[in-house]
Fold this sequence. Notes:
Blueprint: H1 2-15, H2 27-38, E1 45-48, E2 52-53, E3 59-68, E4 71-80, E5 86-88, H3 100-103, E6 113-115, E7 121-127, H4 132-148, E8 153-159, H5 169-182, H6 184-196, H7 206-216, H8 221-229, H9 234-246, E9 254-257, E10 260-263, H10 268-290
Parallel strand pairs: 7-8
Antiparallel strand pairs: 1-3, 2-3, 3-4, 4-5, 6-8, 7-9, 9-10
Helix pairs in contact: 5-6, 5-7, 7-8
Amino acid sequence: xxxxxxxxxxxxxxxxxxxxxxxxxxxxxxxxxxxxxxxxxxxxxxxxxxxxxxxxxxxxxxxxxxxxxxxxxxxxxxxxxxxxxxxxxxxxxxxxxxxxxxxxxxxxxxxxxxxxxxxxxxxxxxxxxxxxxxxxxxxxxxxxxxxxxxxxxxxxxxxxxxxxxxxxxxxxxxxxxxxxxxxxxxxxxxxxxxxxxxxxxxxxxxxxxxxxxxxxxxxxxxxxxxxxxxxxxxxxxxxxxxxxxxxxxxxxxxxxxxxxxxxxxxxxxxxxxxxxxxxxxxxxxxxxxxxxxxxxxxxxxxxx
Length: 304
């Protein structure tokens, strides 16, 4: 009888409704808290991803995606595993480069670039062809980097058109990538030309003006027009936009100097100082790395 009762009890347990597991993070409560903390208006749409492992022991990393019309932004928070604590900011590991988190997300393969072939300092610039501050920053870098640091600095340009406020910026980026595919050197002529003529361009006149520019540079205008009309390079631009969003970029220009994030236009004297700081740091760390450790030597005329 006892055996029969035990079997019946086990059978009842196996057919009982499974206990619903409590979610690791209460997304509803988290959204309400963040809306209050960050002053996110009700019109802003908030999407919270499932928690994932983080570099901070005892905490999850939670990615939050914001959207408002055409504008969007991604942010990350760290939520304790008991759901009671939130950390907003960047986690640094003393054994790693302080900018490693951003460096891991930056990709320069196949991107337009100029400057030193084997640089000690790399600048990755996220820019918008319709942005006035981007125009000034681009001109400053183009004029000063090759002249001041010809053997030390390389600049990469990545498209980050702010479509919510700049109606022709993405189309200009797509056209620029078409030209880059056709002729890498011509891209920089286009880059300089479009910033110089920024105030004259509209969404309606962009294509005709770009084709006029291409004709003046003896580029294949028929091939270029087909590339523009078919949006052949939109994926190239979208990849840069996605990378910028993953980095949390919400303003242009935004630069990364050896991974160090700089937002907004940086006047050349300040930029030069930052670059020299990086060069000095590189030199010092290289000297430290080259030092031999833990070796006792006896002077000898045979040793040079």
